[in-house]
Design goal:
By secondary structure, the chain is of the alpha/beta class. The chain has 4 domains: 63 residues, no CATH class; 132 residues, no CATH class; 123 residues, no CATH class; 119 residues, Rossmann fold (3-Layer(aba) Sandwich). It has 9 helices and 25 strands. It has a 5-stranded mixed beta sheet, with helices on one face. A 5-stranded parallel beta sheet has the order 23-22-21-24-25, sandwiched between helices. Strands 6, 7, 12 and 14 form a 4-stranded mixed beta sheet that branches. Helix 8 runs parallel beside helix 9. The chain is elongated. It starts with 7 loop residues before the first strand and ends with a strand.
Length: 475
């Protein structure tokens, strides 16, 4: 326990006095005594810029710092309870979806470490010291005089001795507050809330613990799930987007040939695409180069190539559906186990709603990352369509723009059709041909262009040639 620099005392009326409230003018207006031993205290270093002001014992005496902190804790909390309009506590809880029979359950169906706030002044109106309850003595006991059947709450001040095991296991609601020095009182009420902190690399142990409080709540939840869209006319290998579990039994694209809800049992590995392609092959006989044993990249290559291209004349960078016509396709058995942690469920053929689709390409130069400008312009441009159409964003691979698109789409419940670049001889950059599929499918283009980016400039040119409405935002 740290050395006690007495910051508090009791005045002649038994009121708590903080040393910070004393000035050179009012320091002699009261007498002061120690909370721990009851002996006379005197203020020291009031107004000093070199020494920390504090109280000290008038006479040399053996005063227990532990007793002082323990009594101080009870006094501070009790006064705070009675003198404040609110007494808010907060502790982490888990909220889980109550639909336990749902086959789409995943880690997102439970949200952990959510702050659960309760204003105890709305429930309790008494806070008494050293009260016996069920064979235990509470440092402070909160009860309701109006509703005596409401279970009480014990508040325990822990300086060096934590709650005994019997009390912790009694089923009584207990708030244990760990105190090592006087500064801890400021920390536990730093934002006006008595809060249990979730341990992290910054905070190893919380100063406040809520014992026997309800930690798991069950309620109807709507969470995001992964949806695989298969329409080879737009994206040969299909693509993933996000939808809500409330739409689990409705297709979200009018022109999709097939859609799958994909649940991942292991969120640490991102093999959703492989799992979906494996499902297509096993259940529909649909082949894609992505799952062929001859299509891979070595440790010296950044992108996969067909290993039969040089000897047998196959395309080096085949479109994924080339496997449909390839006589050399051979399932990569090493991928079979990759899909074991995923479960795919085919979506019925009924479409979500009667709205027409409005497909808009959103693109940006590689150095564009202004989120505020992005949101402002996209909000304005799409404002006339967002309520009348089912908006689909066609997205490319520009890193910053892609991140902004997905954030915007999630916030506005818009689906994203992710297009991957097709790689040519110089595979370090995307082929211009990769823009054709997007432009042919789109109804409009929104482009954030610095006037120099080649690919974004080419996209704008292709869109204008086709006659697509094209909004170019120069920055």
């Amino acid at each position: 326990m740290a050395e006690i620099k007495y910051q508090y005392s009791l005045d002649e009326n038994g009121e708590l006095v903080n040393i910070k409230s004393l000035t050179s003018e009012n320091r002699y207006l009261h007498t002061y005594r120690c909370l721990g031993c009851g002996n006379t205290l005197l203020p020291r270093a009031i107004g000093s810029v070199k020494r920390r002001p504090h109280f000290y014992h008038k006479e040399q005496i053996d005063c227990s710092g532990e007793t002082y902190l323990h009594k101080l804790g009870k006094k501070i909390i009790r006064e705070r309870f009675y003198n404040s309009e609110h007494f808010v506590i907060s502790y982490p809880v888990t909220i889980a979806c109550n639909n336990t029979a749902c086959v789409l359950r995943n880690e997102r169906c439970e949200e952990r470490n959510l702050a659960h706030d309760i204003d105890l002044k709305e429930i309790y109106d008494t806070c008494e010291e050293e009260v016996s309850i069920n064979g235990f003595v509470a440092d402070l006991l909160l009860t309701s005089s109006k509703k005596p059947n409401i279970p009480p709450i014990l508040i325990e001040i822990c300086v060096s001795h934590a709650c005994e095991v019997e009390k912790r296991n009694s089923g009584l609601k207990i708030i244990e507050i760990k105190i090592k020095d006087e500064s801890d009182f400021d920390k536990i009420f730093s934002d006006g809330v008595l809060k249990e902190i979730v341990p992290s690399w910054e905070v190893k142990v919380s100063n406040v613990e809520f014992i026997s409080f309800k930690r798991i709540f069950s309620e109807q939840r709507t969470v995001k799930i992964s949806r695989y869209i298969f329409n080879p006319q737009s994206v040969a290998e299909g693509y993933f987007t996000q939808t809500d579990c409330s739409d689990a039994n409705c297709r979200i694209r009018k022109n999709s040939i097939l859609e799958l809800n994909v649940v991942d049992d292991n969120p640490y590995y991102n093999h959703e695409m492989i799992s979906a392609l494996l499902w297509l092959y096993r259940n529909k006989g649909i082949r894609r180069c992505n799952i062929c044993k001859f299509y891979y990249a070595t440790m010296y290559e950044e992108y996969p190539i067909c290993r039969l291209s040089k000897k047998y004349g196959k395309p080096k960078y085949p479109k994924a559906n080339y496997a449909e016509q390839c006589s050399s396709f051979f399932m990569n058995e090493n991928m079979m186990s990759v899909g074991d942690g995923f479960h795919c469920y085919e979506v019925p053929s009924n479409y979500k709603d009667g709205k027409d689709e409005y497909k808009v390409i959103i693109a940006g130069s590689s150095d564009f990352h202004d989120k505020s400008l992005f949101k402002q312009k996209v909000d304005s441009i799409l404002s006339g369509k967002i309520f009348t159409h089912n908006i689909i964003i066609l997205a490319g691979t520009s890193t910053f723009t892609k991140e902004m698109i997905w954030e915007y789409a999630e916030a506005n419940s818009i689906h994203v059709e992710q297009h991957q670049a097709k790689w040519g001889k110089y595979y370090e950059r995307g082929s211009m041909d990769s823009l054709d599929d997007m432009v042919n499918e789109a109804d409009a283009v929104i482009a954030f262009w610095n006037g120099k980016g080649t690919i974004t400039g080419e996209l704008i040119g292709k869109a204008q040639i086709k006659g697509l409405p094209c909004r170019v935002i120069r920055y």
